[in-house]
Design a protein that fits this description.
- It is a single chain.
- A hairpin with a 4-residue loop joins strand 7 and strand 8.
- Helix content is 33%, strand content 13%.
- It has two domains: 117 residues, no CATH class; 144 residues, Rieske Iron-sulfur Protein (3-layer Sandwich).
- It is built from nine helices and 13 strands.
- By secondary structure, the protein is of the alpha+beta class.
- The structure holds FE2/S2 (inorganic) cluster.
- FE2/S2 (inorganic) cluster binds next to loops.
Amino acid sequence: MSETENKDVPENLPGAQASAHGDVAKRGGNPFADPGLPPHEHRIQDIDERAARRSERTVALFFTLSMLATVAFIASYVALPVDKIVYIWPIGHVSALNFALGTTLGVALFMIGAGAVHWARTLMSDVETADDRHPIEAAPEVRAKVIADFKQGAEESGFGRRKLIRNTMFGALALLPLSSVVLLRDLGPLPGTMLRHTAWSKGKLLVNQNTNQPLRPEDVIVGSLTFAKPEGLEEHDHDFQKEIAKAALMIVRLQPENIKDKRELDWSHQGIVAFSKICTHVGCPISLYEQQTHHVLCPCHQSTFDLADGGRVIFGPAGHALPQLRIGVNKDGYLEALGDFEEPVGPAFWERG
Ligand code: FES
């Protein structure tokens, strides 16, 4: 038999004495419990003061660790330089300040949560109670009275009689939401020329984003989807995230005779084509390639683009084809860019000019 069962409940527990009598006994010492509930089982902390003190100390430890983490958060904010980059396994290169702030804040919040949960589970009352559910519909006479009161209020306010007031009030209420439209300006400036230029330029090698090695035509096989970045763009660079977000490329090899778009064919090398990886809807990275149809799919809202037809949109909310990068091969046999994208990459919601 468990040490938490009722036979071990001390006399001084609330309701424990009452449990010795009649129906209350079936309620596990809780005189308010429904007799249909199973008998209440007391926790070890309810019947052993030393166990209760242990739980109390554990909860206090969680809260103390939270306090220490908050102090560490403030100390990191004050002491760490904004531009210090460190290598953290397995994440890679990250800002030391961001990492410290995120970690300490996460620990502080977690410890408060863990302390609260442990407190609730071990020390707060866990007595079961039953509360009958009543019908929520009001009685017919109550509803009739509410309707009568409403009609009387409308009559007394003159809402129906005073048309001038009523109509101007409707006008004011209809116009008010328009004021929120002007707040859209506070969403920030338009991208300006930022998306018109990327890290690609004439002669820049196409580097495999996974292996960090320059790509040769023979590395790109039919059916595969390769992600590439411009040479010289390294993860620990200050602007890496911003630049890679603009310059990220998808490379696939098609049969030249399958390429429908004349310009696309001219900008390819032996059927290898390079398109921006950034969806022209709202900028998610595209990641799914269907070899049979040459379609790529954006996972965010399912925009689908045909890579054999100039990156044309064939489905979904995107309103613009994927920008293509003109590529060739240098004298050493590596794939290289023949210039920057000729149109802005990324979301097409702003004026492309
Ligand atoms: S961001 Fe790609 S479909 Fe919306």
